[in-house]
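Box 3.1. Reading complex inputs
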Amino acid sequence: EAGVTQFPSHSVIEKGQTVTLRCDPISGHDNLYWYRRVMGKEIKFLLHFVKESKQDESGMPNNRFLAERTGGTYSTLKVQPAELEDSGVYFCASSQERWAGVSYNEQFFGPGTRLTVL
Amino acid sequence: AQTVTQSQPEMSVQEAETVTLSCTYDTSESDYYLFWYKQPPSRQMILVIRQEAYKQQNATENRFSVNFQKAAKSFSLKISDSQLGDAAMYFCAYKSSEWNSQGGSEKLVFGKGMKLTVNP
């Protein structure tokens, strides 16, 4: 079974440009999460999709970030315009539906996209 | 809001020896999950071990075990018989077990991580 995949693995852009990150969850996983780790700091939650709906977007830093999950499959995270403080590693994770007969649904992580804003 | 603290940014251990990674957390909830995740260099983060707060028994997974002290809000990871493949970043994480009819949040709250080096 394929794991969570993310593209690109690394992106270097200049301040003010736009970048779009993509995440493909494990097939059949309704839940999709975005997290971010700024260098030397905690991995922080950004948002959570259940299928195509945003369940929790409390961690989104500002309106320069736009996440979508059209059709409930893959998701994109667009940063426009990028700022220096957006640099970091963006992780995506996915998990099964909450009521899939288990008390806890493990989140499976992708390898991350390292974003560098110059 | 919940917080997770990993106070040691780096540790090293000799191959075949035992090492303990520390983690403390803060929460007002009584029921929750705690995790240790491992991220090897240039690879995906994977779940090492999970502990449910309502369980008094410490979780164990082969060479990995935890010391869960609920009253002290402490959750340390012990790696026995360390192997070269254990070298990685280790993250401690918390998740609320609360759930409501609208679904609730499944977000993980992470610590800063700790880099473990295993020396041959």
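In summary: Chain B touches chain A at residues 4, 33, 37, 42-47, 50, 52, 91, 93, 97, 99, 103, 105-113 (CB under 8 Å).
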